[in-house]
Specification:
The complex is a heterodimer of chains A (320) and B (325).
Chain A lengths: L1 H23 L14 H8 L7 E3 L5 H6 L4 H8 L33 H14 L6 E6 L6 H12 L4 E7 L2 E2 L2 E2 H4 L4 H7 L4 E5 L3 H16 L5 E6 L20 H8 L3 H6 L4 H24 L26
Parallel strand pairs in A: 1-2, 2-3, 3-7, 6-7
Antiparallel strand pairs in A: 4-5
Helix pairs in contact in A: 1-2, 1-12, 2-9, 4-12
Chain B lengths: L1 E4 H15 L3 E5 L13 H5 L4 E3 L4 H13 L3 E5 L5 H4 L1 H14 L9 E7 L14 H6 L3 E3 L4 H13 L4 E6 L6 E4 L12 E4 L4 E5 L3 H13 L5 E5 L2 E3 L3 H11 L2 E8 L4 H12 L7 E5 L8 H7 L3 H13 L5
Parallel strand pairs in B: 2-3, 2-4, 4-5, 5-7, 6-7, 10-11, 10-13, 13-14
Antiparallel strand pairs in B: 1-8, 6-12, 9-11
Classes of the chains: A alpha/beta (320), B alpha/beta (325).
Bound molecules: thiamine diphosphate and magnesium ion.
């Protein structure tokens, strides 16, 4: 349904804009990597998934986590470092997760989610389920060895796994065209899996490709690879704004903004429909922010909690 | 009572756990053929779904185990060579170990990483002679180094049952040793040390294969009237500090015998804690591996590894030096 797709994309967009403000106001510590411009990828892929399917995400993970169904207010609470956060204020932006929804985490390490998703895909099949797993990663990850190791394993074991490459043209400042020899889908094809290239600014095109790949995986026919050509409209992370890295031009950014995935979809809907959804999202986010701000901060006495499932707490840093 | 062989004890622990718990499986290189003996015969009884040969892709199969663990399995990952852990440091230390904390306790990650044949093995040279247990303990990963067959059985069982990642280092030098064992050996809890020989004058903390060397030295020194207590932590993390405290409170003297590099090795940590917290009658000492990769020639290899003679000298040394407090 277009309204569902639009609602999700709009939620991601406004969530990220909200997050930028909160980072700049020092309400969120550290840096976050915004998904602004790439919303169609997470939204289109997750629209093809079931609740019991598993995803692993990246440093730029908020979009995947929202699209897979996490509670937005608990995400904001996490980013604000509150105990009501999804990860009880232990994870923050780069590790945000909801394992109960099959979200095995954003990840601070490029390509690290690939083998984790492969293990989850294998486990689903072992359990007699037709559930699938999806690994999201950027163009930068296609030059990581572990991604290739995982593609090979997924191929030989015919794992129900989707490799979703979000090619936004850059890994921080380094252009994908400079970093990558040969084509991205050509590499995937070498591991003997269907590999397609889609317009990552068109959520319905992404969804269609994902549905094909998911059906292939559920049928027991193994992994697929989808390269989504997309673009991030803002810096690599919230701190880039002050860095003047100069690796791309304003004209290039403007050219891509014309293909804003929200606009591409909105043009297929009525203005009233869009306006109603926009209002709905504003209310959701306002409520989420209020919830996060009112939530308690963690007790410092609990700083060594949650490291181990059993056994003694980690030792303290001062002598007894 | 029959005498159980260390390597067979590992194999039996895995077989017993795979029989008891269908979520347990092993993966790694050449585990069907069982190059290291840990999974010998298992493929015939449990099939290829639970005895999985992997391509030579340590990062991927180690991360794969974590994903399977999050989805409800209890994987055992075998590493053919100790230094392969370096290639898998990322998925163990940065992913599996941190996942529970990073998610605020949302999930458990019950993966066991086993290195059957850790440490130097005469002539295998620099890249096949590491014994990196301190590295993993330093990174917060539960780490065990069983010294005997019974402990190998019991600690492997506990590692598999544990809900956190655990690395088990089986020293190459003890794989062929035997120990009296009951019909059905038991699990050994993590974080529980073992007194191998009681004594009154000096506590020797020995780890892994060095336990056997320490026992030989204790025997030799007993002839000179020196009473050595040989204490084995068995788990490096969690470490049985209370067990060690009890021993040192009795003896007042401490020597650590540890086959990791000297700098930032386990022995340094034990000495530091003892100096801060335990009643010592003399400055403690340590006998460790030298801070260098293991050279090929056998006499050079031996020159860098902790030896019985060095231990005997260190024990005599702490007995000589009385500190007035
Ligand atoms: C293995 C690894 N190397 C380097 C980094 C630092 N780093 C973080 S994001 C990033 C760029 C990733 O680019 P890409 O995969 O294209 O994702 P994008 O940021 O474009 O979404 C780098 C180099 C890291 N986190 N992990
Ligand atoms: Mg990129």
């Amino acid at each position: 349904m277009r309204s569902d797709l639009y609602r999700t994309m709009r939620t991601i967009r406004r969530f990220e804009e909200q997050v930028v403000e909160l980072v700049n106001a020092n309400e969120i510590a550290g840096v976050t990597h915004e998904y602004i411009g790439q919303e169609a990828v997470a939204t289109g892929v997750c629209a093809a998934l079931r609740p019991d399917d598993v995803i692993t995400s990246t440093h730029r993970g908020h979009g995947h986590v929202i699209a897979k169904g996490a509670e937005v207010r608990r995400m904001l609470a996490e980013l604000l470092g509150r105990t009501t956060g999804l990860n009880r204020a232990r994870g923050g932006s780069m590790h945000i997760a909801d394992v109960s929804l099959g979200i095995y985490g954003a990840n601070g390490i490029v390509a690290a989610g690939a083998p984790i998703a492969a293990g989850a895909a294998w486990a689903g099949r072992e359990a007699g389920s037709d559930r699938v797993a999806v690994v999201f990663f950027g163009d930068g990850a296609v030059n990581q060895g572990v991604l290739h190791e995982t593609m090979n394993m997924a191929g030989i074991w015919k794992l129900p796994l989707l490799f979703v490459c979000e090619n936004n043209g850059y890994a921080v400042s380094f252009a994908a065209s400079e970093a990558t020899s040969g084509s991205i889908v050509g590499r995937a094809a070498a591991y003997d899996m269907p590999a397609v290239h889609v317009d990552g600014m068109d959520v319905e095109a992404v969804q269609a490709a994902a549905e094909t790949a998911v059906a292939h995986a559920r049928a027991g026919d193994g992994p697929s690879f989808i390269e989504c050509e997309t673009y991030r409209f803002v810096g690599h992370h919230t701190a880039e704004r002050t860095m003047k890295l100069g690796y791309r031009t304003d004209e290039e950014i403007e050219r891509w903004r014309e293909r804003d995935p929200l606009r591409v979809l909105a043009e297929r809907m009525t203005p009233d429909e869009v306006a109603a959804l926009d209002g709905e999202v504003e209310r959701l986010l306002a409520e989420a922010l209020a919830f996060a701000r009112e939530s308690p901060r963690p007790a410092v006495a609990d700083a060594r909690e949650y490291v181990y499932a059993s056994g003694p707490l980690p030792r303290e840093g001062v002598s007894a | 009572m029959a005498r159980m062989r260390y390597q067979a004890a590992l194999a039996r622990a895995l077989r017993d756990e795979m029989t008891a718990d269908p979520s347990v499986f092993i993966l790694g290189e050449d585990v069907r053929a069982s190059l290291r003996g840990v999974s010998r015969g298992l493929v015939a009884d449990f099939g290829r779904q639970r005895v999985i040969d992997t391509p030579i892709s340590e990062q991927a199969f180690t991360g794969f185990a974590m994903g399977a663990a999050l989805a409800g399995h209890r994987p055992v990952v075998e590493f053919q060579i100790p230094s392969l852990l370096f290639t898998a440091f990322e998925p163990i230390v940065n992913q599996a170990q941190k996942f529970r904390l990073m998610t605020g306790g949302q999930a458990k990650v019950p993966v066991t990483y086993i290195v059957p044949g850790s440490g130097a093995r005469r002539g295998l040279a620099a890249q096949h002679s590491d014994h990196p247990y301190a590295l993993f303990a330093q990174a917060g990963v539960k780490t065990v180094v069983p010294a005997t067959a019974l402990d190998a059985y019991g600690l492997f069982l506990s590692a598999i049952r544990d809900d956190d990642p655990v690395v088990l280092f089986a020293p190459a030098a003890v794989l062929g040793t035997r120990e009296e064992a009951p019909e059905q050996p038991e699990a050994v809890p993590l974080g529980d040390g073992r007194v191998h020989r009681a004594g009154d004058d000096v506590t020797v903390v020995a780890i892994g294969h060095l336990v056997h060397d320490a026992l030989a030295v204790a025997q030799e020194l007993a002839e000179d009237g020196i009473s050595v207590e040989v204490w084995d932590p068995r788990s490096i993390l969690p470490f049985d500090w209370e067990g060690l405290r009890a021993s040192v409170e009795k003896t007042g003297r401490l020597v650590v015998f540890d086959d990791t590099n000297r700098t930032c090795g386990l022995a340094g940590e034990v000495l530091a804690t003892a100096a801060e917290e335990f009643p010592l009658a003399a400055p403690p000492r340590r006998v460790t591996r030298a801070d260098a990769p293991i050279p090929f020639a056998v006499e050079l290899e031996e020159a860098l590894l902790p030896s019985r003679a060095q231990l005997a000298a260190a024990v005599r040394g702490v007995l000589d030096r009385e500190v007035v407090r």
